[in-house]
Specification:
The chain is built from 12 helices and 6 strands. It is mainly alpha-helical and 324 residues long. Helix 6 packs parallel to helix 8 and helix 8 runs parallel beside helix 10. The longest helix is centred in the middle third of the chain and has 28 residues. The two termini are 63 Å apart.
Length: 324
């Protein structure tokens, strides 16, 4: 069942009421709303909201300005159904029901995907990770004018998103979808060259795709990046996987993808003769010879298979004769 309202921060700030976008004031009002949503159902002080907008360099009218912003937001959200922003002593609180805000939903799905991966429930891990990533519509807080919020929230959300990506890709490998995962893993290891688990997944995907040489090359590249950037060798995960690939460990072999019972059966391929022409004339001698051969092959005495060839230039009626 769809939520009455939906608040979305994993991309540009968006508020929907019964699947219709709610017009929101632009500028600092959006930053105030984002700050309240990031602390949904908890009090946020006026001073805290002011710091979100101006940092430590507060204007003299900061408190009054924040109050005016909240007033405008109240009006916008009230038009969508009911009062959402409550007043407390020197603070405000926005009421959000379970499932209405995308960030908590995302966090729950990521935790579920990671737990399923630890338990080896790869179908569940893939489904939860995909559902978590589907909530993203771009950079979080993309149109919110607040460096303080961006510094506080965006790195944490980006890390969780990367965990979801890793869980989905690992599930893909475990479910036999290694070939599809290789291009994405190659891109991710270039973007995050110090993230060893991504390198391990790339090595495994390449190995399962029967590209052992490239898997060894991926290990060498990961090792060099770690040495160049941090002055350290790869950790135990990469080193152990490297040795297992060298030893052709059978447990690393790709799993054959399973067909879902919900998949439709393959369509039957017709195997039949072309249709006969409406009017056929002539070729009496040829028809007599072919019919005689068929009659002989139809006897009860076992014998060789009879094969006849009809020859001639294009358009003389070879197919029509054979069908007849």
């Amino acid at each position: 069942m769809a939520q009455e309202m939906e608040f979305r921060l994993l991309g540009p700030l968006l508020v929907n009421c019964r699947e219709t976008a709610v017009p929101l004031p632009r500028g600092h009002q959006r930053a105030v709303l984002a700050a309240l949503l990031l602390s949904a159902n908890q009090v946020v002080t006026v001073d805290g909201l002011a710091e979100v907008l101006w940092g430590q360099d507060l204007p003299a009218s900061a408190r009054l300005t924040v109050q005016n912003y909240v007033k405008r937001l109240r009006i916008a959200l009230r038009q969508a159904g009911r009062d959402r922003i409550g007043t407390r002593p020197n603070s405000y609180l926005i009421r959000v029901d379970t499932g209405e805000l995308d960030i908590p939903r995302f966090e729950v799905l990521v935790a579920s995907a990671c737990a399923a991966a630890r338990d080896g429930s790869w179908d569940q891990a893939a489904a939860d990770a995909a559902a978590a990533l589907a909530l993203w519509r771009g950079e979080p807080l993309a149109d919110v004018e607040s460096p303080a919020l961006a510094l506080r929230e965006v790195p944490r959300l980006a890390e969780l998103r990367l965990q979801a990506v890793e869980a989905r890709l690992e599930a893909d490998l475990r479910l036999g979808r290694h070939m599809d995962a290789v291009p994405e893993l190659q891109r991710l290891t270039r973007t995050h060259p110090l993230r060893e688990h991504l390198h391990a997944l790339l090595m495994l995907a390449l190995y399962q795709s029967e590209r052992q040489g490239e898997a060894m090359g991926a290990y060498a590249a990961a090792r060099q990046s770690l040495i160049d950037e941090l002055g350290v060798d790869p950790g135990s995960e990469l080193r152990e996987l490297h040795q297992r690939i060298l030893a052709a460990d059978p447990s690393l072999a790709a799993r054959r993808p399973e067909l879902s019972t919900a998949d439709p059966a393959p369509a039957a391929v017709p195997r039949q003769l072309p249709g006969a022409i409406a009017h056929f004339a002539g070729r009496v001698g040829e028809l007599t010879a072919l019919t005689t051969l068929l009659d002989e092959a139809d006897s009860s005495t076992p014998g060789p298979v009879v094969i006849s060839t009809v020859g001639g230039t294009a358009g003389v009626g070879k197919t029509a004769l054979a069908v007849r």
